[in-house]
Design goal:
With about 190 residues, the chain is α/β, with parallel strands linked by helices. The chain is about 30% helix and about 25% strand. It has one domain: 3-Layer(aba) Sandwich (Rossmann fold), CATH 3.40.50. Helix 3 packs across helix 4. Bound molecules: zinc ion (ZN).
């Protein structure tokens, strides 16, 4: 096969050189009352988030999660154990790779909890405007988990509308949304 980033022949979806070369560049984003941290520059990983590479993309996402999220969560200091909540992690949902990221990115005091926030809305949000997103909320179904504190996880932040709605859903159910993490933010 060929590396998805440099197109050289490779035994994996991102060749070793590209995997080592992609820079982890943490950034803080203030999404109204929720803080979010992203780990990669959009241009560096955009080819991997392209749906046309599905299902291969999930293998590449695994590698990105191990490189960025795992060290971050290993070093993280929290007062209590926290749940890591992948947003809308439906099996077979090609547009959501959050479960893959949570599975391979969690470490230390963060435990992935799957299927806790799933959208009722079947609308497709990719490429849509802020107005569209705000007019059609995801209407998350919440399922309880044992930790009180939670960290939200998504693959990509665009407007931040989804993360804010997810955070509000947690808070309404008595949880504390500490912050959110994502691979990158679309420009
Ligand atoms: Zn490569």
């Amino acid at each position: 096969m060929r590396c998805l980033l440099c197109a050289k022949l490779s035994l994996s979806f991102i060749c070793r050189e590209c995997r080592e070369a992609i820079e982890v560049n943490p950034r803080l984003h203030n999404l109204r009352d929720l803080r979010a941290i992203t780990f990669y520059d959009y241009d560096d990983i955009a080819p991997l988030t392209n749906a046309k590479y599905y299902p291969f993309g999930s293998f590449a996402l695994k590698q990105l999660a191990i490189k960025a999220f795992k060290p971050f969560f290993s070093e993280l200091k929290l007062d209590n154990k926290a749940a890591l909540i992948p947003i809308d992690d439906r099996v077979g949902a090609w547009y959501s790779h959050s479960a893959v990221l949570a599975k391979f990115g969690a470490a230390g005091i963060v435990t992935p909890r799957f299927g806790r926030l799933r959208a009722r809305s079947k609308d497709k949000y990719a490429g849509q405007t802020l107005a569209f997103r705000q007019s059609r909320p995801r209407r998350f179904v919440f399922k309880d988990f044992e930790e009180r504190d939670a960290i939200l996880l998504d693959d990509l932040i665009t407007t931040g509308t989804t993360l804010l709605e997810a955070g509000e859903t947690l808070e309404k159910n008595g949880k504390t949304a500490l912050f959110a993490v994502a691979l990158t933010r679309a420009q």
